[in-house]
């Protein structure tokens, strides 16, 4: 297939582009490098031994995007591009609603003006809000999020579902990711956050290489066995493979409309489990202090993965040890990420 990947230079996008290339697909990337470096694509090309056409375009530049899609005959789009920092979205809601919604609407209009009608969207477990029972099932309603970032995911899922309902030629995959971590086993590509990491595992790995003094554990008084929050951590390579499985399923299923799949492992680990796994993988002790809870954090988040297993024939296979070993290889070989 010929696939257009928006946000393909980013963390999950770059791993998915590599997986697509390795499976024989042709790939073009659109990215404005708001949160990524073109170096990620250069490294993907080296790993795959194949070329990727990189379009440095903001998705909101609708004319350029329309021209790009018009005669290209893409079989599908994977739409990763967007802003993703929860805290920043609370501080700058108009930036988040503006960027994520305008980018998506511009992309959908450009697709509508072309022959491409299949799209896989990066949604998030955040759409289950703070009331849904665990494990989360895709049929759960109502979808609600507790911050503007999450609301953009709920809204874009709605837009895509309405679009699919309006015209059965559209095929839409809504992939609800849990907590993507780790890196490609080569150590050549990985997550490269700008500034202070918002997420747990890049923070841990930056402590390990001395970029941060210590990890703050956000609360140890949760109702869990060790008192720290539980999440469904999924290896980014498993996640990448889930996108290919979703594309294959959409290609084989005319009239599918819009369909959501959870991409997680179906199990959860605590903050302290993750720290211990990282310490075993790296041999580096992680200094930590316990701080207060972070506002908005859930006690437990994990997926029911039976729908993805049954319909996509996909299942995550890599465990926490491998996630941390691959994270450590990336971080120790690239302590300052793509910035050298
Ligand atoms: P990322 O920031 O590494 O990648 C996003 C990419 O999109 C970046 O390369 C950025 O430069 C690009 N981009 C942003 N706005 C753009 C625009 N207007 N035009 C063109 N390019 C633009 O993030 P990621 O972790 O790879 O996440 C990818 C997607 O998955 C996002 O939509 C994110 O919300 C979603 N998601 C991520 C997680 C996670 O924990 N990483 C969890 C659930 C969902
Ligand atoms: C994991 C656990 C923290 C940092 C967020 C978004 C979600 C998503 C993925 C985004 C929690 C604890 C963390 C630290 C800590 N999608 N923690 N110290 O909150 O599950 O999900 O990222 O695109 O929408 O909300 O992930 O990695 O921030 O936290 O103790 O310095 O680690 O409390 O239990 P989270 P996270």
UniProtKB/TrEMBL annotation:
Residue stretches in coiled coil: none
Keywords noted in UniProt: Carbohydrate metabolism, Galactose metabolism, Isomerase, NAD
Gene Ontology terms for molecular function: UDP-glucose 4-epimerase activity
Pathway: Carbohydrate metabolism; galactose metabolism
InterPro entries: Epimerase_deHydtase (IPR001509), NAD(P)-bd_dom_sf (IPR036291), UDP_G4E (IPR005886)
A GO BP annotation: galactose metabolic process
Enzyme Commission (EC) number: 5.1.3.2
Database matches in SUPFAM superfamilies: NAD(P)-binding Rossmann-fold domains
NAD-dependent epimerase/dehydratase domain boundaries: 3-254
Signal peptide: none
Catalytic activity from the UniProt record: UDP-alpha-D-glucose = UDP-alpha-D-galactose
One GO cellular component term noted in the UniProt record for this chain: cytosol
Pfam families recorded: Epimerase
Known cofactor(s): NAD(+)
Assembly and interaction partners: Homodimer.
Family the entry assigns: Belongs to the NAD(P)-dependent epimerase/dehydratase family.
Protein name: UDP-glucose 4-epimerase
Organism of origin: Nocardioides daphniae
